[in-house]
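User: Can you recover a sequence for this backbone? Please restate the input before giving your answer.

Assistant: Of course. Working from this structure:
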C-alpha cells in the first residue's frame, strides 16, 4: 500500500540529509541486508516498525508517532476514531475513542476496539456505520 502511494503527484525531490529541517519518518522500501540494517540502527534513539505484509520498515525518532502528530494538530484524547493496520498505529489507538484494526495484525488487534477485514467494502461499511452513529 505504501509503495504504490509514494509521491503520486511527482512532487518529491532528492535531497541530502543536511538539507532537511526535521526528520519525522524514514521509510525503507527495500534493503539488500535488512537484518544488518536493523542491527546497526538498534542503538539509536529511534523506533523501527517492520511492516511484514509490505516488506518495508519505517523509522521514526523516539516520541514521534501518529498520536503525537494528532496532538500537535490540536486533537484531544478520546475525541477521534482511528483506523490502522500495523504496529505504528498502537499509540494512536490507545488515545482514540474508538479504534478499528484493518486486517489481521495481532498486536494492534489486541488494543483495537474492533477488527475488520482488509476488504474495501468492509472498511467503507464500518466508516459509514461509525459516521452515522449506528454503533
Amino acid at each position: 500500500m505504501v509503495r504504490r502511494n509514494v509521491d503520486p503527484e511527482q512532487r518529491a525531490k532528492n535531497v541530502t540529509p543536511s538539507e532537511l529541517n526535521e526528520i519525522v519518518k524514514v521509510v525503507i522500501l527495500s534493503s539488500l541486508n535488512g537484518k544488518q540494517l536493523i542491527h546497526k540502527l538498534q542503538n539509536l534513539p529511534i523506533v523501527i516498525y517492520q511492516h511484514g505484509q509490505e516488506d518495508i520498515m519505517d523509522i521514526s525518532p523516539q516520541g514521534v508517532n501518529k498520536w503525537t502528530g494528532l496532538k500537535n494538530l490540536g486533537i484531544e484524547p478520546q475525541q477521534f476514531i482511528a483506523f490502522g493496520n500495523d504496529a505504528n498505529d498502537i499509540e494512536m489507538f490507545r488515545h482514540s475513542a474508538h479504534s478499528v484494526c484493518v486486517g489481521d495484525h495481532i498486536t494492534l488487534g489486541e488494543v483495537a476496539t474492533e477488527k475488520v477485514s482488509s476488504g474495501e467494502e468492509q472498511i467503507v461499511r464500518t466508516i459509514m456505520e461509525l459516521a452515522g452513529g449506528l454503533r
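That completes the design. The longest helix spans residues 120-131.
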